[in-house]
Amino acid sequence: KYKPNKEYELVSVPMNSRQILWADYVVFPFTNQELQPLFEKIKKINPAIKILFNVDFNYYLLSKKHPLAESFGEDKFEIIEDNIFYSDITLVSNSKLSEFLINKFKKELAENRFKDKKSNVEIGTFPYLIDKELILENVRLEVPKIDNPKNQLRVGIVGTNYAWEDINSYKDLIKEVCSKLKDKVKFVLIGFDGVDNKTNKNCFPSNCEFEIVKPCTIIHYYKQLRNLKIDLLFIPLRLNDYNQTSENYNKFLEAGLFKIPIMVYNTFPYNEIIKNGKNGIILEKKKEFVEKIEFFEKNRDELKRMGSSAYNLVTTNFIYDKDNLPIVDKIFN
What we know:
Elements: H1 17-22, E1 25-28, H2 36-45, E2 50-55, H3 77-85, E3 89-92, H4 95-111, E4 122-125, H5 132-137, E5 153-158, H6 164-168, H7 171-181, E6 185-190, E7 210-213, H8 218-227, E8 232-235, H9 241-244, H10 250-256, E9 262-265, H11 270-273, E10 281-283, H12 288-298, H13 300-317, H14 325-332
């Protein structure tokens, strides 16, 4: 059963020795489970195999209120560190997290936990690319009509319970937008209704008109992203070390493929890829959120222009094709 808000759950994946002998790599997802004994067994079967471990976010900087704080808290740090230390390759969400972990392992951990122990692990980032052909295979060519008699500005927000604190930090600003623009704007909540599954508190204000889209699989996500006819996708992030060492720019690529511009606070890695006013919107101050929504409600051609620019950037530089696949292959070899 698909559980989008419970992403990290234990699953059993059977492996046999034939698969291990045949494979060049075995890839492990981010987990708080001890993997070192399994790594050793795999290496005994195939000493040449490369073990790859993924780290999805900076577990050291998780807020205590974060839904994953218990699963990836301090009592799990040593297990995760071992998984990284004894892997051959550890791939992380962005370059700042890569730098953070390299410094952590080379300095603090090398002088304490792993003193006199040897590791050949390489820590780096995997280039984020999207498979345009595969995505569009699952998207209808004809976009269904959206009933929008008031010609409302449709602002999308993609979220899960993991983003509750970030979204909640914009609650008053969203409330202000709805008070000023009333029925001229509609927020389309994709995958999350704003209600925290532990506290039942809602990170969205009660005075807005929302369209709530239920969570779905990744295949249907692209269908929704296109069919919802979103004018602007807002990514509600706070400026903090956790976000800057955990976020990737996938949402920019996904939205850009459908010519939807993104608006986000001036934070890494989005400020590395978005040129403000050209292929997206960077907020220098959070309070600009209200001003920008008011402006774009009256100037929608500007959103279309930036959406087209984002599309050109994505399809020119971030698509799997014969030119960049050798680069990906080189990373692993």
